């Protein structure tokens, strides 16, 4: 009988499985004198699932699918219907398991479909989520630049340049110019020093006579290596 303590052990006996267990292995029940329910947690879960299935059948005239057996370290993907290792699922802090509901291929497919449905494609989603502009604004800004990179003038640039401090979009640049500004940390001082450095270390090819050039030495730096 539940609630009966073993002689001096402090354990309780489950009414379903008949095993003696520690009180912590029973569900809490404030209505009982000992504060614990009549069934251990595993037996209580079995009873709860059976009760739920019975209610669903009576109220909705349908059967509840039996619980799926999933090995430890694995998870079931409802989209592809496969049981896969947890490593094949994306991380998700919001889920109690720490992993997403769908495996990586199914998760990626769902993500692409969502971006297509809400934004018309991955490109539009990326522009709006990262820079707050769409493809139309991108095209308009590029047209204002004459269709070329805002720094070097190369045609058909594809990268949005923005102020990393404020997030404001500044222009459309090619890959090299956009990356270069980032490497110089958007610092005019660093860029000015780089210009001064190049002027002081780069040998200049100067025309001294029609068809004749001479390499002029910079203020510092090594001479160019002779060609073999």
Question: Shape from CA axes?
Answer: elongated
Relative helix content = 25-40%
Contiguous low-pLDDT stretches (5 residues minimum) are none
The averaged pLDDT comes out at 88
> What's the β-strand tally?
10
Secondary-structure-based class equals alpha+beta
Instruction: Please identify, by name, the CATH architecture of the domain at 121-186.
Output: 3-Layer(aba) Sandwich
Number of helices: 6
Percent of sequence in beta strands: 15-25%
How are the strands of the biggest sheet laid out side by side?
1-2
Q: Please identify the top-level CATH class of the domain at 121-186.
A: Alpha Beta
Which superfamily, in CATH terms, is the homologous superfamily of the domain at 121-186?
Answer: His-Me finger endonucleases
Rg, alpha carbons: 35 Å
Biggest beta sheet attributes: 2 strands, antiparallel
SSE ordering: EEEEHEEHHHEEHHEE
Here the CATH topology of the domain at 121-186 equals His-Me finger endonuclease fold
The first-to-last residue Cα distance is 99 Å
Protein name: Recombinase
Pfam family, one: Endonuclease_7
Description:
InterPro entries: Endonuclease_7, Endonuclease_7_sf, His-Me_finger_sf. This is Recombinase. It is a single chain. By secondary structure, the chain is an alpha+beta fold. Among the domains are: 12-60, no CATH class; 74-116, no CATH class; 121-186, His-Me finger endonuclease fold. Helices cover 35% and strands 18% of the residues. The protein contains 6 helices and 10 strands. It has a two-stranded antiparallel sheet with strand order 1-2. Strands 3-4 form a two-stranded antiparallel ribbon. The longest helix is centred in the N-terminal third of the chain and has 20 residues, at 41-60. The model has no long low-confidence stretch (mean pLDDT 88).
């Amino acid at each position: 009988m539940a609630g009966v303590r073993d002689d001096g052990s402090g354990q309780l006996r489950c009414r379903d499985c008949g095993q003696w267990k520690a009180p912590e292995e029973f569900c809490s029940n404030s209505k009982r004198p000992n504060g614990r329910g009549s069934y251990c947690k595993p037996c209580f879960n079995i009873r709860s699932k059976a009760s739920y299935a019975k209610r669903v059948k009576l109220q909705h005239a349908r059967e509840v699918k039996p619980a799926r057996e999933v090995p430890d370290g694995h998870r079931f993907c409802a989209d592809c219907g496969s049981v896969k290792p947890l490593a094949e699922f994306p991380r998700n802090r919001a889920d109690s398991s720490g992993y997403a509901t769908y495996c990586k291929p199914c998760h990626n497919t769902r993500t692409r479909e969502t971006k297509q449905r809400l934004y018309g494609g991955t490109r539009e989603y990326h522009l709006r989520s990262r820079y707050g502009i769409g493809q139309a604004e991108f095209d308009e800004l590029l047209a204002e630049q004459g269709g070329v990179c805002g720094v070097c003038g190369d045609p058909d640039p594809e990268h949005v340049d923005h102020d990393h401090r404020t997030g404001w979009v500044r222009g459309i640049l090619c890959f090299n110019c956009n990356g270069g500004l980032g490497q110089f940390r958007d610092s005019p001082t660093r860029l000015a020093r780089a210009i001064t450095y190049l002027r002081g270390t780069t040998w200049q090819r100067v025309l001294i006579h029609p068809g004749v050039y001479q390499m002029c030495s910079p203020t510092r730096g090594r001479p160019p290596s002779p060609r073999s």
